[in-house]
Structures are given as structure tokens and as C-alpha cells.
Amino acid sequence: MLSNKYVRTIMLSRVLLQLGIWVRNFAILLYVTDITQNDPYYVSLISVVEYAPIFIFAIIGGTFADRWRPKRTMMLSDLLSACSVFVVLLVVMSGSWKALLLATLASAILSQFSQPSAMKLFKQHVPEEQLQSVMAMFQSMTAFFMVIGPVFGTFIYGHYGIEVSLIVMGGMFIGSSLILGLLPPDTSDEAGRSRSGFLAEMKSGLDYVRFNRVLRNLGAAFAFAGLAAGLTQPLGIFIIIENLGKDKEFLQWIMMANGGAMLLGGMFIMSKGKTMKPQTMLSLGLLVSAAGTTGVGWSHHTALTLALQTVSGFFYPCIHIGINTLLLRNTESAFMGRVGGIMGPMFMGFMVIGMSIAGYLAGILSLSVVFSISGALFLIAMLILLPMVRAKEAEQQPSLQGRL
């Protein structure tokens, strides 16, 4: 896979982006908590400016990604992110720390244009039989940075402060853009341009998903899986305190076990999972998540909880790898950006809904019941995909260009 210039170059670019993003996430979080004395309003506002662009700009960015040249789009997005960071640095040095939120907002917005362009290049330049392994490689990289990213970001901020953290962040974005410059030039076919207007192209993307049975099923599964993930994400700390009777600091060991298992799971799929159909892989990941989430909610034994988190983490890459592989295989190149722009908010939107009601449900029910509800939602997502598991893969690629 690394012999493919597109995979190798984008992979190296994403390594620098991940480093920059984790420095951004933790340096800004720690700085804001320090300067506001842990004000929950501003701490929560960091998450808002990080996730809000997914809802507002995902479909817009995806539509433009289908119209623009992918290499140029990714390079400009990274360069503009770096420019925004250095502008924010100047403002912060003058004493206005609230501008830090603009750095997060700008890079989050621009990523909605860059990410679909990378998927489009994979669709065009990676052989179909290698797509699943490529997605596994990128999932492994993401899991790796989930383990070391917080440590790296905390180290940079703790030792050098917010100004140096911003310089490192901007430097990483510039480095990513320069590396992307090594990609072969965009071709006219990669531009994805159309004579239709912007709104017409956005509507055609929505119609494309609506008429594609595989994408419809994936969208429904996305919604249930996102709601399931959102219900448990804010409650992990209470599992540690109430169910296990541990101090809140013990949460880091649970997260490390889960993140390490995710890394191993992604590497295993990359090397051994080539023969498994992506819809089978996705269903397996959802089934294990259903069982693991329910078990964690009812477990009062530390060893059992660690084991369940480790097993769930090992199979969790099956979900993301299966989803991305199915999207790549069942989406025509001209619609790659718009499909990603529709599917991403589907998951994130329901996850935010789950996060917003998790505390209320835990208050009127119990942790065990909420985690059981989450497990049931994962199971429903898996059942939605059963027809796809039984279907022949060759029957899942209808060309819809003629309908639209």
C-alpha cells in the first residue's frame, strides 16, 4: 500500500495534521481552563466550535470538494489553517485569549473541505481490493494518536506555553501542505466540475443518497450508532467512580486500554482482514460494541471492565473501516464529497443528541440502564445492516447517474 504515492503522501500529511490537531485540542483546552479558572461555559464552547462546523459546513465542503481539484483543495485548506493560527497568535500576544476559539473554528471549517478531497483521491487512485486495508491503516494511525496525542499536546503546552503551542500547530499545518505538494498534478477528470449550479449539485447529492439502498441503510445505521455512542461518552467517568469505586484519575487507564486495543485491532485488520466483506466487518463491530457497552454498564469489577473495554476497542475499528470502505465502494467518484458531507453529520448529529440527554437519563434511570439502552441501539444498527451482509457485493453498486 505504501508503494502507492497517493497513500504514502496523504498518510504522511495526516501524521503532521494529527500532531497539529492534538496540540491544538489540549493546548487550547488547558490554557482556557487556566485563564478562566475552569469556567464550564468556555470549556464547553471549545467543543461547540470544534463540532458545529461539521453540521454547517460538511455538505457545503463536500459539494465544493466535488467541484474543485482535490490536491489544490487540500493544500489550500492546510495553508489557510496555518495562516489563521498565526493571526490568532498575534492577537493572543496582544492579550485577547478568546481569539483561540477562532483557531479551532477555522481549522474545523477548513477540514470539511480537505477530508472529502482525500477520500476522492483514494477512490480514484487506490485499487478497490486495497481500499479496506488503506482504511485500516488510517484507522490505526488515528488510534495511535488517540493514545499519544494527549501526551504530546500536554507536554508542548506544559513546557513551552500557548504561544509555542500555536507556532507548533501552524508549523504542522504548513508541513502538511508542503507534503501534499508532492502529489501528482490534478487532472481534468479530478476536478469534478459540473455545469450545474451549487444548489443543484447539493440537491443531486441528497438524491444520490436517497436512491442508493446501501447508502440509505448506512445512513440509518449511522444515526443509531451515533445516538448509542453519545449516550455513553459523557458517563465514562461515573462508571469509574460509582461502579468501580475508583478515583476519577483511573479513567486514563481505561482510555489507554481502549485506545491501545483500537490500534492493535486496526493493525490486525490491515494485515489479516482483507478477505472479510466490509459489511460483515461493520456488523461484527456493532455487535461487539452492543455486548461490550451493556457489559460495562453492569460490571462492578475492575478486571472485567478493563477486559470489556479492551475487547470493544479491538473490534471498534471494524465500524469505521467498514463504513469508510462501503462508502468508497458504493459511491461514484463525482459524488464522493457530497456523500461524505451527508453521512458525517448524520453520525455526529445523533451523537450530540445522545450526549445532551445522557446526564438526564442517568439521573432518572441508572448507569446500567443507560448503557443497556446504548447497547440496544448498537444492536439495532447491526440489524439494519443484515440485508447488506446477506446480499452479494456485486449487487450493491448500482450506477445512479442516469436517474439524477
From TrEMBL:
Signal peptide: none annotated. It comes from the Bacteria. It is a multi-pass membrane protein. Coiled coil: none annotated. The chain crosses the membrane at residues 12-32, 44-64, 134-158, 218-241, 253-270, 282-300, 306-327, 339-358, 364-386. InterPro entries: MFS, MFS_trans_sf. It is found in: Cell membrane. Keywords: Cell membrane, Membrane, Transmembrane, Transmembrane helix, Transport. SUPFAM superfamilies: MFS general substrate transporter. Its main location: membrane. Pfam families: MFS_1. This is MFS transporter. It comes from Paenibacillus tritici. The lineage of its organism: Bacteria, Bacillati, Bacillota, Bacilli, Bacillales.
